[in-house]
């Protein structure tokens, strides 16, 4: 199997990581393209002593760590972040965000994350704790949950409240979600895609975003249906079944960047 074939299944998830790290699909994709170009230009330098996914993320990390948000390096588009994100970025180190996302959202072990960021496991644990503490200190929100499975909805609600946020309501259909959002404007939306009456969580979010801007996290058992690269993609996407740490990391990052993204 060629290197390209080995890496292909992991690219959608690297793009997810890059978007969450930068808060922008175009900005994140620019880093991913630079990563692939580096591999094509020098395939002999690709790490062969580790799993292909680790090697891919390791190459990405090298590209990321060699650039800054001031525009240096290979990034040529999508470099402007929301003002609120810029202010928060100044208060938390990029390395801490990487450690948090790699372990909580991408599912790497502490040992793998240490390898990816050229650190050790103790420092990774410290970085993750620091990132969570700082982001949670900066962000508090009213959260609307759009989820038709009662047990999952209860689990998400518990996670949200444990993080110190309030829940404005739990909707199980598109119409109910829009009504709840209009009745009490949320600061964050957690949305399933397939709802109880066969309506779409994506359509519900589009309706809400026509009324006001709000950051959105989508939840689905089939992330590949949204990670196609053929249309605007959600910046924050959680795969079912999910880990609590994944939801916590996504909420923290979504509120950190405080921007709305929904597929067209």
From TrEMBL:
Superkingdom of source: Bacteria
Modified residues (4-aspartylphosphate): 192
CDD domains per the UniProt record, alphabetical: REC_PhyR (cd17540)
Alphabetical UniProt keywords: Phosphoprotein
Domain named Response regulatory: residues: 142-255
Any one Pfam family match given in the protein's UniProt record, by short name: PhyR_sigma2
Transmembrane segments: none
Biological process annotations from GO: phosphorelay signal transduction system
Stated name of the protein: Response regulator
Organism, scientific name: Sphingomonas cavernae
The organism's taxonomic lineage, starting at the top: Bacteria, Pseudomonadati, Pseudomonadota, Alphaproteobacteria, Sphingomonadales
